[in-house]
Amino acid sequence: MSKEVETRTLLDKKDVKRVMNNLPSNGFVQESQVAQHDIVFDKDGEIFRSGSKIRLRIEGGKKELTFKGKSAGDKDASRRAEINLPMGDTADENDVIEFMTAIGFSVLLNLRKTRTEFKREKLSVCLDEYPIIGHVMEIEGDEKEFAEIKQLCAPEYRFGDYRLVEFFETVMQKTGKDIYVLKQEYKNKTGLDLGAIEMLFKQKEEKMEQLSLVIFKPDMFCDCATGGIKHGVKDKFFAALKEHGLEVILTGKKFWFTEKLMQDHYGHVKAYNNGQAIFDNTSAFMLSGESLPMIVWGENAIQTVRNIIGPTRNATTGLRVTSESATKDSPKNYIHASGIANGADPYREAKEEIVRFFPNEYKQLIKDPRYKEFFGA
Prior knowledge:
- The protein has 14 helices and 13 strands.
- The protein has 377 residues and is of the alpha+beta class.
- Helix 12 packs across helix 13.
């Protein structure tokens, strides 16, 4: 049994060449470029939900069956035990699939990719090109060196313990296509059935009770008439929450954003077009005054809160989210809510944000039976 430590991100196609050029100039040597075929097995999504994985990898004439245990890491990196079982040259993948199916497993993912691997001593950086998903950068090895590599090669990207299903969600968000359309496109392109990945999305649709982080931003506390909070905005927002059956279960204290917190919370925007300017403008705004965090709970809370806020002024609730002091070059709004950041899974983002702004209270929340399932505890 070996121990694997890795972190990943999804690269834009335009940045792949830059990353590949940066690696050799920082001591990395390209070891290989190979075609890999991964077949992931599961039982109704149970193994995926547990955080584990059973995978058959085919590379050239070699085949290897791998079990990856539950990640003992955090949002920044995956740390898990791994058991590898090399198979003989005469082993046939169809026989393995037939065997796994006979004992109750099904093919969750059936993926082909091209892997380009670079190495520097005990550190490995892989650039994987998948049909449909695109380019994934993976760093594996000495975790102490991860930060250096991320800064040198892809400082604008958010790395983490991401799983392939989250990258499919990113594509779905960007293209507006559902998983069934992507499955058909994958089959048209590769001739392969992608697998039963849709079961994971069905499970998410059935998961209704959610937590979402909300932050009142500095302009919420700049009401010249009262010298305090903008009650009109606040009252409409809370009224809309109540109307949709949502409740605020926890309100923190007013606080000031720090530069580090800005980087952790908003650093992902640097990957956008004109991202650095957006980040700088957002930083100037968020560092200009106090903010107030809270946690909202209820049915479909993540999307419902975002629907309540809406763009600029919500036609349904009349809630104005964009600040009167906003400009075209420096957009400001009153309220932040968990949702999709840099293509991330909204559930994952909500959990990360709650841990970020309520680190001590989070330890109690995961013990509460109402919230335990949401956190996967």
